[in-house]
User: Which sequence fits this backbone?
């Protein structure tokens, strides 16, 4: 009796733990969708024709918030451990990202950090630039950007020698088809096509960033993730301010200081920081299906906002492009063993149907006959 009672209690505990994990995953999925779309929609609202059109300045502000990651991590850890943590000792461990004490390794450390800074700023700038109202709708930009999941798998297969999964190659085909349809819907050579080019560039840059991040950093802990993010923010802030200043002085980017939309700028910067916090901290422990569903939910929310708020009507070609890219996200997010599970399930269904039609005894006789014929041939 005690054994049965203990087993039932363990079953209840396991069920409650699974239920909590599912609820947590759904909450994180929703947070990913909302933060991503808020950042996209707020960034779109910063474009005020004739008053404020400064995508590079907005990228600079987005990147500047990255500097807060490691200080906030140290503060949270100091409070969580009741002031028992030693920040300097932990910093010595956290700085071991891709670093050793030799002179050659110091140059490699600086070079890799510079490479990640360039990739990060390029990805952010092309994404914000594609949100120009003269180019694409926010939903179109978001749909094309979300295809980076497929590019990440392709590059991981080539560079990191990850396992080959045919289903993800199909996802890559869907994603590329969605890109082609988006370009075709806007018309080749039009302003919409340049929006497609910028969005695809942001997607490709993000995929290169993530693959190189995995290659050179592996599986860092939370402290190393925070320090790396802060280093990227500090590097961009220190190196890019002359570019921002020159763009504003030469009026290459239009900035009217009396009419800067600070609300939309701060809202987009905070939202993108939340999104990247989830991607860096939560994605390694969150099931890939929920992350993919988060991006799908974000596309649905973005389409509703564009339709209800901006009155944007999507053509059939644009809807088809969004559907194809959504299928690509869904397929690339499925687990590696999903094709094997589907094959096993289909085989079991075929055998079950054969047994229901012919009867169990007949199938057993056919199996015995086949074995006898096999023995006769040998």
Assistant:
């Amino acid at each position: 009796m005690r054994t049965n009672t203990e087993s039932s209690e363990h079953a209840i505990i396991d069920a409650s733990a699974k239920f909590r994990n599912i609820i947590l995953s759904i909450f994180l999925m929703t947070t990913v969708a909302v933060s991503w779309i808020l950042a996209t929609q707020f960034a779109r609202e910063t474009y005020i024709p004739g008053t404020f059109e400064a995508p590079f300045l907005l990228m600079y502000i987005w990147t500047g918030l990255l500097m807060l990651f490691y200080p906030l991590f140290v503060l949270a850890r100091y409070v969580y451990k009741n002031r028992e943590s030693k920040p300097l000792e932990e910093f010595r461990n956290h700085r071991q990202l891709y670093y050793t004490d030799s002179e050659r390794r110091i140059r490699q450390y600086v070079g890799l950090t510079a490479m990640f800074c360039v990739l990060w700023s390029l990805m952010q700038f092309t994404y914000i630039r594609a949100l120009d109202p003269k180019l694409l709708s926010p939903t179109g930009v978001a749909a094309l950007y979300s295809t980076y999941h497929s590019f990440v798998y392709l590059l991981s297969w080539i560079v990191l020698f990850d396992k080959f999964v045919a289903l993800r190659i199909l996802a890559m085909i869907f994603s590329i088809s969605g890109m082609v349809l988006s370009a075709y819907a806007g018309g080749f050579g039009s302003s919409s096509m340049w929006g497609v080019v910028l969005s695809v560039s942001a997607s490709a840059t993000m995929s290169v960033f993530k693959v190189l991040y995995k290659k050179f950093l592996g599986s860092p802990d939370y402290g190393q993730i925070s320090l790396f993010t802060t280093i990227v923010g500090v590097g961009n802030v220190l190196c890019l301010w002359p570019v921002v200043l020159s763009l504003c002085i030469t009026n290459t980017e239009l900035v009217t200081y009396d009419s800067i939309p600070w609300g939309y700028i701060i809202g987009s910067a905070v939202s993108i920081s939340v999104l990247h916090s989830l991607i860096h901290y939560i994605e390694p422990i969150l099931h890939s299906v929920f992350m993919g569903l988060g991006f799908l939910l974000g596309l649905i929310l973005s389409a509703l906002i564009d339709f209800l708020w901006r009155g944007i009507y999507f053509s059939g070609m644009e809807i088809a492009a969004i559907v194809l890219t959504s299928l690509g996200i869904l397929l690339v997010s499925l687990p590696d063993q999903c094709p094997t599970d589907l094959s096993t399930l289909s085989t079991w269904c075929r055998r079950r149907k054969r047994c229901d039609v012919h009867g169990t005894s007949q199938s057993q006789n056919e199996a015995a006959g086949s074995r006898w014929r096999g023995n006769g041939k040998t």
Remarks:
- Residues 346-378 form one domain.
- The two ends are 55 Å apart (CA to CA).
